[in-house]
Amino acid sequence: MGAPLLSPGWGAGAAGRRWWMLLAPLLPALLLVRPAGALVEGLYCGTRDCYEVLGVSRSAGKAEIARAYRQLARRYHPDRYRPQPGDEGPGRTPQSAEEAFLLVATAYETLKFFSWWNSYNKAISYLATVPKYRIQATEIAKQQGLLKKAKEKGKNKKSKEEIRDEEENIIKNIIKSKIDIKGGYQKPQICDLLLFQIILAPFHLCSYIVWYCRWIYNFNIKGKEYGEEERLYIIRKSMKMSKSQFDSLEDHQKETFLKRELWIKENYEVYKQEQEEELKKKLANDPRWKRYRRWMKNEGPGRLTFVDD
């Protein structure tokens, strides 16, 4: 733990700086193989606390952490750092600036991944309070005999609080295994780390080229009909939604899209117009929107008003 993160010689020259950029996300992946308890309690980047590296408190939110990271990344970026006369100490030479940049990137990736896990656990805790999911999870736990095991008296007698906590964990684990949470609260995956995205980038690029060529051959040249997957893909692109955003939609919404054949451009334009008209009606009936329009009409920008004190 006390050894340097990487030898400063790695950062020598432009090629070395590129390697620093690619290796920056590596340490979070290595840190995550440590026990989860140590990660939560310490959140260390090497020998330093990740929060302390970014200069933020442990109560800092996502926006504050991201802002601190951007400021420090610009300051220590190997291609932008220019040592000033009299600079001494950590981060004051090109080599130490590269080490500082790597440490800052590591801290940011670690805290971002931890924050993602925190959001996922909060979602699970919330779902455990929703009767619809709690009742189903409890029934499954009873069928599998898990709740009986939690109440069994072994060599060490369990207190009521311990039994209650264990039963709560059982219900949460069942919810985790049975419910596929999508969107910003979905379960974090190690492959979502930037390091793995960089490593897998060539594979994804090749896969996309193969997929695109098949698309052109099957649907543009041979004139095949779109399947459900292709239709949903076209609809998603028309709506300008990312895959994660589209996947977070309810199944009945996607079924409506398919029934209305929104992969056809003309049908989508009609649907889009309907949505815009519906939004206008909602805004027209919204008191806040009415106040805003009244303000724009009477006292909006470009108007001079005289108010007696």
List keywords for this structure.
309 residues; mainly alpha; two-stranded antiparallel sheet; 65% helix; extended; 2 strands; disordered N terminus; 15 helices; disordered C terminus
Describe this structure in words.
- The chain is an all-alpha fold and 309 residues long.
- It has helices at 13-23, 26-31, 36-42, 50-54, 62-76, 94-127, 131-143, 146-151, 160-178, 194-221, 228-238, 243-247, 251-259, 265-284, 287-299; strands at 44-45, 48-49.
- It has a two-stranded antiparallel sheet.
- Helix 1 (13-23) runs parallel beside helix 6.
- The model is unreliable at 1-42 and 301-309 (pLDDT under 50).
Q: Which consecutive residue ranges, at least 5 long each, have pLDDT under 50? A: 1-42, 301-309
As a percent range, the share of strand residues is under 5%
Largest sheet, strands/sense/barrel: 2 strands, antiparallel
Q: What integer value in Å does the Rg equal?
A: 27 Å
In round numbers, the mean pLDDT is: 74
Cα(first) to Cα(last) distance is: 67 Å
Strand and helix order: HHHEEHHHHHHHHHHHH
Query: Numbering strands along the chain, what is their spatial order in the largest sheet?
Result: 1-2
Continuous helix count: 15
**Helix/strand/pairing category:** mainly alpha
> What is the overall shape?
extended
Number of DSSP E strands = 2
Helix percentage range: 55-70%
Strand and helix map with partners:
Layout: H1 13-23, H2 26-31, H3 36-42, E1 44-45, E2 48-49, H4 50-54, H5 62-76, H6 94-127, H7 131-143, H8 146-151, H9 160-178, H10 194-221, H11 228-238, H12 243-247, H13 251-259, H14 265-284, H15 287-299
Antiparallel strand pairs: 1-2
Helix pairs in contact: 1-6, 5-6, 7-9
